[in-house]
Amino acid sequence: MASQPTLLLRLVFLLSVASLVSHRATAQVGSYEPIPDLSDPYIQLIANFAVAQHNCRQTGEALVYVRVESGQKQVVAGINYRLIVVATDAGVKEYEAVVYKQGAVLTLASFRPAVKI
Fold it and tell me: Do 13 and 72 form a contact (C-beta atoms < 8 A)?
């Protein structure tokens, strides 16, 4: 049987490893991750929601949803969906939409022209 100092060292080592693993998992919470399937009907619903909400907020614009160009999601107290949405009005443009989902409620957090990088 191992002596008490050896058991204590093992315990300290295991607690250190557990703390490190816990810290790494926490560091990834809140980071944006790519959405693998942009054609998913739920992602399409969120994108349509963003365009419709934008049209309600902005007088004089009647954007028509075309497609999702790219997207990421972030798990927070709910889920943030950051989508690059293609929409048309007088011409085809890309917009960055951020939609927050908490429970069954969707909220348009922002909607602005996408910045080309």
Answer: no
For every residue of 11-49, DSSP letters joined together read HHHHHHHHHHHHHHHHHHTT-EEE-S-TT-HHHHHHHHH
| pTM exceeding the 0.70 threshold for the entire prediction | yes
Question: In what order do the strands lie in the sheet containing 79-88?
Answer: 32-34, 64-75, 79-88, 92-102, 105-113
Distance between CA atoms of 40 and 13, rounded to whole angstroms?
45
State pLDDT tens for residues 7-38: 555 654 554 544 444 433 443 567 999 999 99
